[in-house]
Amino acid sequence: MHFTAALDLITGAIVTADALHTVADHARYLHRRGAFGLFPVKENRSTLFAQLDALDWDEAANEHVTVVRTKETNSGRHETRIVRVQPLEHGQANFPHATRALLVERYTTGRGDGKIRADAELGVTTAPAEVADAATLARCVRGQWAIEAQHFVRDVTFGKDACRARTGSLPRSLATFRSLAISLAHLAGWTNNAAAHDHYRNHPADALRELGLTT
């Protein structure tokens, strides 16, 4: 769906998106609508990425860096998230209406092996501090991460990316069936989507019983 077509009553809202939407026109569109954007910045936006990466992110040395730390446990996986936010001066970031930059670090302890996995992501927002403080931005980052995790299940675990259906109503119908399968697996007590997918693929009769089609 086109970016602007998905947005209606958004005045005053903070809109999060994936890196595909980190483009100047989208930031300008939100500004015209009285809304604000929170965009991840990856290396495909090389100039902007380099500008944000060059900032001083050490809160001990830079008094303008605000840090929000959160911890959570989900299905046996422990995650520590550190979100650093700092204001942008004129010329520091080549992005329309940018007010602040973000550095998000995630440290995840996986189930079973106990290994710690780390990743980091830069970002930019057009929301001023009086609209969204650092804690609010951290919550927005967490919300977008949850959306991305859901997309990963559909795209990778349930094979959406490999699906060759591209025309007519078939792609939408298949997407509906994937969402239905995920919901039914959760209702059946599964907490690991990949394990549920493997089980029902190898034991289709169990899936039919869950649907009440067999006894």
What's the helix and strand layout?
Elements: E1 14-16, H1 24-32, E2 36-41, H2 46-53, E3 66-74, E4 77-87, E5 100-109, E6 116-125, H3 134-157, H4 170-187, H5 193-202, H6 204-210
Parallel strand pairs: 1-2
Antiparallel strand pairs: 2-6, 3-4, 4-5, 5-6
Helix pairs in contact: 5-6
3D structure, described in words:
- This protein is of the alpha+beta class.
- The protein is built from 6 helices and 6 strands, in the order E-H-E-H-E-E-E-E-H-H-H-H.
- A 6-stranded mixed beta sheet has the order 1-2-6-5-4-3, with helices on both faces.
- A hairpin with a 6-residue loop joins strand 5 (100-109) and strand 6.
- The chain is globular.
- The mean pLDDT is 83.
Structural descriptors:
35% helix; 23% strand; 6 strands; 6-stranded mixed sheet; 6 helices; single chain; 215 residues; alpha+beta
Question: Considering DSSP H and I runs of 4 or more, what fraction of the residues is helical?
Answer: 25-40%
Helix count, per DSSP?
6
- Radius of gyration (CA) equals 20 Å
- What order do the strands of the largest sheet run in, or round the barrel if closed? 1-2-6-5-4-3
Beta-strand percentage?
Answer: 15-25%
Count of DSSP strands: 6
H/E element order: EHEHEEEEHHHH
Shape: globular
- What is the terminal-to-terminal distance? 41 Å
Helix-strand makeup class: alpha+beta
* Unreliable runs: none
Mean pLDDT over the full residue set:
83
Biggest sheet architecture: 6 strands, mixed
